[in-house]
C-alpha cells in the first residue's frame, strides 16, 4: 500500500510539474493521487485473481489425475496441494487455499462447502462454476469421479484460453504505457533543447487555462486507452 501511495504522489507530481511547472498544483490535483492508488490496488487484486485462477487450473487437473489413480476426492485435493507446493511454492495462493481446505476437512466441513467458499472469495466465474458443479454432483450421486474429471478438464481449458488472451493483450498494455509517456518525453526534450519554449504557458491565466485543457485531454485519452485494453475474458 505504501508503494502504491508513493506512485500516486509521483504521478500527481509529474503532472503538476509538466503542465503547470509548479508542485503547488499537486493540491488541486490531489484527487489523482487517490484515483491512482485505487487503480493500482484494483490491478494488484486482478493479478492475484489471475494467479489464483491459473494455479487453480493446475490444481484441478492434478485432482483429476489423482481420481484416475484411485484417490478419494478429498485425498485427491490434498495431494494436489502437495503438487501446488512443488510447482509454485508453499506460499503460493493455491497452496495456502488447499491447506485451508485441509483444516476444514479435519473439522468435518464438507469439501463442497469449502470449494463454494473458495469460488465466492476468488470472484472468478470459472472457479465458482466448478464449485457449483462439484456440489451438485456430490449431492446427486452418480459417477462422481467421471463428472469431476470432465468438469476439471473443461474448467482447465477455459482458464488456459483466458491466460492466452491475457498474454496477447500484455503487448498492447506495454504499448499503452509507452504512449502515455510520449507527451512527457516530447515536452522534456523541448524544454532541454529549447529553453523557455513553454514559458508563455506557465504562471499566467491564459497559459494555465490552456494547460488545464491539455491535461483534461490527456487524462481523457489515458482513461479511454485503459478501457480499450481492459477486455473481460
3D structure, described in words:
- This protein is mainly alpha-helical and 233 residues long.
- The protein has two domains: 10-45 and 164-232, no CATH class; 47-156.
- The chain has eight helices and no strands.
- The protein is elongated and about 80 Å long.
- 19% of the residues are buried.
- The model has no long low-confidence stretch (mean pLDDT 82).
Please name the defining characteristics of this protein.
233 residues, mainly alpha, 82% helix
Please outline the major beta sheet. none
Percent of sequence in beta strands: under 5%
Q: So how many helices?
A: 8
**Proportion in helices:** over 70%
Number of structurally distinct domains: 2
Average pLDDT rating: 82
Which structural class best describes the helix and strand composition? mainly alpha
Query: Are there runs of 5+ residues with pLDDT below 50, and where?
Result: none
The rounded Rg comes to 25 Å
First CA to last CA: what distance?
A: 27 Å
Number of strands: 0
Amino acid at each position: 500500500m505504501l508503494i502504491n501511495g508513493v506512485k500516486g504522489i509521483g504521478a500527481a507530481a509529474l503532472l503538476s510539474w509538466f503542465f503547470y511547472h509548479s508542485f503547488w498544483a499537486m493540491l488541486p490535483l490531489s484527487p489523482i493521487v487517490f484515483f491512482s492508488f485505487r487503480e493500482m490496488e484494483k490491478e494488484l487484486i486482478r493479478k492475484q485473481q489471475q494467479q489464483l485462477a491459473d494455479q487453480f487450473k493446475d490444481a484441478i487437473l492434478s485432482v483429476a489425475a489423482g481420481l484416475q489413480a484411485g484417490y478419494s476426492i478429498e485425498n485427491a485435493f490434498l495431494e494436489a496441494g502437495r503438487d501446488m507446493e512443488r510447482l509454485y511454492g508453499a506460499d503460493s495462493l493455491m497452496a495456502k487455499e488447499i491447506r485451508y481446505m485441509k483444516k476444514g476437512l479435519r473439522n468435518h466441513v464438507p469439501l463442497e462447502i469449502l470449494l463454494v467458499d473458495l469460488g465466492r472469495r476468488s470472484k472468478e466465474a470459472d472457479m465458482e462454476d466448478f464449485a457449483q458443479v462439484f456440489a451438485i454432483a456430490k449431492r446427486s450421486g452418480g459417477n462422481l469421479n467421471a463428472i469431476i474429471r470432465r468438469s476439471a478438464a473443461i474448467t482447465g481449458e477455459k482458464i488456459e484460453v483466458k491466460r492466452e488472451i491475457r498474454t496477447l493483450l500484455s503487448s498492447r498494455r506495454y504499448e499503452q504505457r509507452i504512449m502515455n509517456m510520449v507527451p512527457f518525453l516530447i515536452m522534456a526534450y523541448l524544454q532541454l533543447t529549447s529553453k523557455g519554449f513553454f514559458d508563455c504557458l506557465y504562471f499566467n491565466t491564459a497559459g494555465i487555462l490552456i494547460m488545464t485543457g491539455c491535461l483534461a485531454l490527456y487524462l481523457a485519452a489515458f482513461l479511454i486507452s485503459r478501457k480499450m485494453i481492459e477486455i473481460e475474458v
